[in-house]
Task: structure prediction
Amino acid sequence: MGITIKGLGYYTPNKILTNFDLEKIVDTSDEWITTRTGIKERRIAEEESLLDMAYNASLMAFEDARLEPKDIDLIILATLTPDLGFPASACLLQAKLGAGKAYAFDVSAACSGFLYGLEIASSMLITGKSKNVLLVGAEKLSQIVDWSDRSTCVLFGDGAGAAVLSLDGDGELLASVMRSDGSYWEILYAEKCGYIKMKGKELFKLAVRSMAEVCEEVIRKVGVSMKDISLVVPHQANIRIMQALAEKLSIPMEKVYSNIQKYGNTSAASIPIALYEARREGRLKRGDLVLLTAMGGGLTWGASLLRF
Ligand code: UT7
Result:
């Protein structure tokens, strides 16, 4: 018996910012962004708050799970862009959903937030302390992007993804490995109320190496081989990172899911949005072995192997 993703949902703002739009804002080109990152466009929350995005994604996940907010006893929201300093965005979401039985808190683990949340949710479910958990990754990165810095502003976007998790199903979280190393904090950070600062080249190399290590560790733990994996759903930071990771793991790119061209890097939201879209496109089915991996500010990183 293990945890099942009973429902998935997502929300992305209607406003699309294309590479051509960015050409008018900073000294960049569609050609550079496409070849260096794989991104063609991203969504920008002009009217939506973080709470609006998290709420819409959650409603969709509840409908998919055939459960209601009152059935949930824990809400975990992963974000690095909350609407308020405090309280936690998860508490605002709990109130808006009317999830009266749930306690709620935020997780701050940047791009690894959804995986960290999955790890916590899984522990609460397996120990019987929770029955149904709502896990959300939501980001409004456009508010902490320096729109005059071409080295970062082309990369990020806004959105939210949600999952309803429960023990009541055939799915299983087979193994996971989570890591942090705070000594690298200056590679990717934002000061309080400041903009994202990033050492892209160093982060690129660390991302490939660290995600490959934890993916291999998780595979070893479970005793399966890379050939058994149906789909890898990595955090969507750069298509070249995903390609380098696939090469290191000897996995063909056909088995690596990517929607970065549409959304850019949405940090904690990227994996749940990708899971939703992979399933919608028929690339993820019940019983499949799916490998999730992420790396981000902290540094934080991890991998989880699921039977979906
Ligand atoms: O979500 C957390 C994880 N995030 C990541 O892992 C991101 C990791 N890093 C990356 O994805 C890549 O390092 C970037 C996409 C950020 C940058 O790609 P790169 O191939 O490492 O480029 P670079 O930083 O080495 O820059 C190459 C050149 C530079 O010009 P010079 O010095 O060679 O003349 C940059 O100034 O490209 C220039 N450049 C740009 N040119 C046009 C940097 N940004 C842009 C831009 N448009 N937007």
Q: What stands out?
A: The pocket of oxa(dethia)-CoA is lined by residues 28, 32-33, 36-37, 111, 150-151, 154, 188, 200-201, 203-204, 207, 237-238, 241, 265, 295-296 (CB under 6 Å). Residues 146 and 292 are 29 Å apart (CA to CA).
